[in-house]
Specification:
By secondary structure, the chain is α+β, with helices and mostly antiparallel strands. 16% of the residues lie in helices and 42% in strands. Bound molecules: the ligand N[C@@H](CCC[C@H](N)C(=O)O)C(=O)O. This is Diaminopimelate epimerase.
């Protein structure tokens, strides 16, 4: 199987061009290639596929083999791959994902390679049934208490196509992400598990985020998570609707615009290509 390793702010995936390659059992392939000792090493697997509804289609699998509806850092890399490798020839493209069809704007360098991508991530979905969470279907979850191991956290939840639980903390660098992340990910109030963002407010326009990802553990960045953080900060009155988010592997710019859509801008990087026997 031919593959290309790419990352967005350090959130790294193995990408397969399914315009020319075929992957029959993507969940198993994701587990195999993601292994950092016995595989290629990545947070998961992303398939770049033809679409009958958009310029390109993305399917995304976490390192545990579970499929997610959406990946914010992944979709920027899919756009870069599609442009740099001649699948699309324009700088405004559409992409089909499990979270619907998204539009992306590509920014190129002097060598006409994509360096940065702005994604319309769609409108955040805020009700318990949309996230999904147990409880009253139409209710929003803003600053709601959740008890974990004798500690009370306050959670704000949103779906960006995939589920997110945002928790604001005082000192995120020293926060025990590995201790609390998996317990919240698998908490019974999240029937399809959840991604968890631990966030420190720096100012009304700047935050620092660490992410515990559903199906992958702590990663260096999460684009859908950063988008959910922008929404959660505004809903709690802690931040403006336009912020710079410092993630462990790089920065993302987020804007929850007046039209209700969430715009994410960030880097996309190709690292290397190769072949692996599956
Ligand atoms: N890192 C991604 C999100 C990947 C999927 C996530 N772990 C899930 O299961 O929903 C991003 O950049 O959004």
């Amino acid at each position: 199987m031919k593959f290309t390793k790419m990352h967005g702010a350090g959130n790294d995936y193995v990408y397969v061009n399914c315009f020319s390659e075929r992957v029959d059992n993507p969940a198993d392939v994701a587990i195999k290639v993601s292994n950092r000792n016995f595989g290629i090493g990545s947070d998961g697997l992303i398939l770049i596929m033809p679409s009958d509804k958009a310029d390109v289609r993305m399917r995304m699998f976490n390192s545990d083999g579970s499929e997610s509806e959406m990946c914010g850092n992944g979709i920027r890399c899919v756009a870069k791959y599609a442009y740099d490798h001649g699948i699309v020839g324009k700088k405004e493209i559409s992409a089909e994902t499990g979270a619907g069809i998204l539009t992306l704007q590509l920014f190129t360098n002097e060598a006409n390679k994509v360096e940065k991508v702005r994604v319309n991530m769609g409108r955040p979905r805020l009700t318990r049934s949309e996230i999904p969470m147990t409880g009253e279907a139409g209710a929003k979850v803003i600053n709601e208490p959740l008890n974990i191991l004798h500690t009370t956290f306050h959670i704000t939840c949103a779906s960006m196509g995939n589920p997110h639980c945002v928790i604001f903390v005082d000192d995120v660098e020293n926060f025990q992400v590995e201790k609390y992340g998996p317990i919240i990910e698998n908490h019974e109030i999240f029937p399809r598990r959840t991604n968890v963002e631990f966030v420190q407010i720096i100012s009304r326009t700047e935050v620092r985020q660490r992410t515990w990802e559903r199906g992958a553990g702590e990663t260096l960045a999460c684009g859908t998570g950063a988008s959910a953080v922008c929404v959660a900060g505004a809903l709690n009155g802690l931040t403006e609707k336009k912020i710079l988010n410092h993630l462990s592997g790089g920065d993302l710019e987020l804007e929850w615009a007046e039209d209700g859509f969430l715009y994410m801008t960030g880097p996309a990087v190709e690292v290397f290509s190769g072949e692996i026997e599956i």
